[in-house]
Amino acid sequence: MHRNELGVWIAVAVVLAGLTVPWFLWGSATVVAGLPVWLWWHVGWMGLASVVFWVFAQRAWGIGIESTDDDGSSERRVGGPGRTREPRTGGDSP
User: Fold this and answer.
1) By CB atoms within 10 Å of each CB, which of 18, 39, 44, 92 scores lowest?
2) Long-range contacts (CB closer than 8 Å, 24 or more residues apart) made by 90-94
3) What is the pTM of this model?
4) How far apart are CA 11 and CA 87, in angstroms?
5) How many CA atoms, within 13 angstroms, populate the side-chain half-sphere of residue 63?
6) Name one Pfam family in it (predicted).
7) Are 2 and 74 in contact, with CB atoms under 8 Å apart?
8) Does residue 70 fall inside a structural domain?
9) Diameter of the chain by CA atoms?
10) What total of structural domains would you count in the chain?
């Protein structure tokens, strides 16, 4: 289950990064509401990326970095709501 989820999040990250630069709009002089269309693309893409990151932070933060027991089951997942954290050892309290 976690491998499939990790694969989906990797694919989402690649698509988000790959379409950040609107290469298909290069050379376009189209203007909408006084601004070039490529600038609107960036504004919309930043909004979409923010929503995707928020969803990732809520649902999958720490995926792919959890440790496993000898039997292969997940021991602890770090970060995100409802996830357990390793106990602190040493150092001063915050």
Assistant:
1) 92
2) none
3) 0.60
4) 32
5) 18
6) DUF3311
7) yes
8) no
9) 61
10) 1
